[in-house]
Amino acid sequence: MTSRLVVIPTRRAHSNHAEVARSIGVDIIAGRYAEGVRLPGDAELTAMFGVSRPVLRESVKTLVAKGLLTTKARVGTVVRERGAWNMFDADVLAWHLDAGIDRRFLNDLAEIRLAVEPRAAALAAGRRSEADIAELNRSMARMRAEASDSVGFADGDLALHLAVANASGNLFMRSIGNVIEAALRASFLLSAPVETQDRETVLLWHQRIVDAIASGDAKAATVAMTEVIHNGLRRHKEAPASSGAAPAISTAVESGEQS
User: Fold this and answer.
1) Cα separation of 149 and 34, whole Å?
2) Which domains does the chain have, with CATH numbers?
């Protein structure tokens, strides 16, 4: 089965070396430079991008630090295997959205969410403050007020999940939520519950997360969060496959690379 590929354009970088790094990074992630392939030489790349050698070398250093490239004496600059890429790097995630996210990416995202978010919900049930509960309720209100396939609905969904991470009181869980924020928003947009019954199911289980955290029921919060993630994954899998890129969804993701 062909993976559904959806391109989500991000904002461009703010410096020459950052833009060159972004361009090469997107090409690597999209498979235009395959794993184990040596990049063109400095002369070809500087001519291609219209930059100086110092700018190119700074770009390569950036990609090496993010795990996408390695440099070897007498070999050159080589693309590393996917498993070496730093998927918690904000730029690497943004470049995935630029390159086009497919079902493999969405499955991997769901798996890391299942490893973290149910536990975050359980912790939130024991540590939440009144301010946390108020933020959760605001997020639910926004979801109810917005059309299911709107950016506003996805943003309300995202705000709720980030509020759960914040209420957990665990700094690592908060950080993970912030790092994968762009990928979560993209995932929520792609799994929008457009059918009436799907919408009611989504709202029901999100409300159960809020209610369980508010009542201090860690077990119920865990179950509800797990169900929410599985529901979203099911909608991704039921979406029709496409042999090409679907229409772009602009989320205006800011590249983390600054000048």
Assistant:
1) 35
2) 17-84 (1.10.10.10), 102-238 (1.20.120.530)
CA–CA separation, 118 vs 162, rounded Å?
A: 13
Q: Which residues contact 42 (CB under 8 A, 6 or more apart)?
A: 53, 56, 57
Mean pLDDT of 7-36: 83
| Tokens found for residue 149 | 């396939």
Note the pTM of the prediction, 2 decimals.
0.81
Exposed, middle or buried by CB within 10 Å (0-12, 13-18, 19+), for 91? buried
Region for residue 142 given its phi and psi (left: phi exceeds 0; alpha: psi -120 to 50; beta: otherwise): alpha
Q: What are the C-alpha distances in Å from 64 to residues 40, 79, 85?
A: 16, 9, 9
DSSP letter at 69 equals E
DSSP E strand boundaries for the chain: 5-6, 69-72, 76-79, 245-246
